[in-house]
């Protein structure tokens, strides 16, 4: 392979499918070299999906949680409660059950991200600690907060 000086390299938004595949292969090869055990676990499909629903006395869905388990982590992707049932403990029940299931599967930690107008205080009350924040993430003045919790 010929390596050219940086000042002779052109950057373009035009990428062919075969070029994209090559780029992804380079990244995947690097990741395997640096963390092969983790990459192999992804190939083996060790990530397990999680879906929970909360239902009222009429068996109507009033809340839900979507996430996954991977290695020793619970990831919460979506947690939402029907507006009439907010602040009544439904979200707490959903997250607590997800955490219980995570511990049963050997998970030691949980993580979630949420917007400043969504539920940062909710997760703080459940014992999550903020580990990062992207200010003005949506370019409309709202921050994205990242939380984690030790489950052990």
Automatic annotation (TrEMBL):
Q: Which InterPro entries match?
A: Acyl_CoA_acyltransferase, GNAT_dom
Q: Which GO terms describe its molecular function?
A: acyltransferase activity, transferring groups other than amino-acyl groups
| UniProt keyword Transferase, yes or no | yes
Sequence ranges assigned to domain N-acetyltransferase in this UniProt record: 1-152
Q: Which UniProt keywords apply?
A: Transferase
Under the heading PROSITE patterns, the entry gives: GNAT (PS51186)
Q: Which Gene3D superfamilies match?
A: 3.40.630.30
An example of a Pfam family matching this protein is: Acetyltransf_1
Can you say what this protein is called?
Acetyltransferase (GNAT) family protein
Lineage runs:
Bacteria, Pseudomonadati, Planctomycetota, Planctomycetia, Planctomycetales
